[in-house]
Amino acid sequence: MIVFISTGAVACVSDSYDIWKCCEKIWGEELRDAVIKRGKNGGTLLIRPDSGDPPSVVLKVDRDTQKCAYKCSYAVINGEGVDVYKQPISDPSKTSKKGRLALHHVNGTYVTLEGGRSDPKL
């Protein structure tokens, strides 16, 4: 019998022998429907390797791999608004949004609008 609470956060220490097989086969196939149901109920599943070399078995998920970071986009200096952004010459993919930003939900997806191009009603 499998008991799997469907809400809240749960952390599971997983397979001592093959963490990759455990994640792929057990969590990703055998328990997949339960994991998805848990996510739809606002639950979170955390899987922690039981052993192994951490740099080898733990994914190094960070703001670069997720393409997400909080950055300053607008400042007021001496009473005047100034757009703030970065545009690194060595990596154009890291160019940030500038100015006053607005987040909108449009056709089922989220869109960030720059530079005050927002409709305040939305």
UniProtKB/TrEMBL annotation:
Keywords: Glycosyltransferase, Pyridine nucleotide biosynthesis, Transferase. GO terms for molecular function: nicotinamide phosphoribosyltransferase activity. Pathway: Cofactor biosynthesis; NAD(+) biosynthesis; nicotinamide D-ribonucleotide from 5-phospho-alpha-D-ribose 1-diphosphate and nicotinamide: step 1/1. Signal peptide: none annotated. InterPro entries: Aldolase_TIM (IPR013785), N/Namide_PRibTrfase (IPR041525), Nicotinamide_PRibTrfase (IPR016471), Nicotinate_pribotase-like_C (IPR036068). Residues 14-58, 60-101 form the Nicotinate/nicotinamide phosphoribosyltransferase domain. Gene3D superfamilies: Aldolase class I (3.20.20.70). Its EC number is 2.4.2.12. One of its GO terms (biological process) is NAD+ biosynthetic process. SUPFAM superfamilies: Nicotinate/Quinolinate PRTase C-terminal domain-like. It is an enzyme of class 2 (transferase). The keyword Cell membrane does not apply. PANTHER family: NICOTINAMIDE PHOSPHORIBOSYLTRANSFERASE. Belongs to the NAPRTase family. This is Nicotinamide phosphoribosyltransferase.
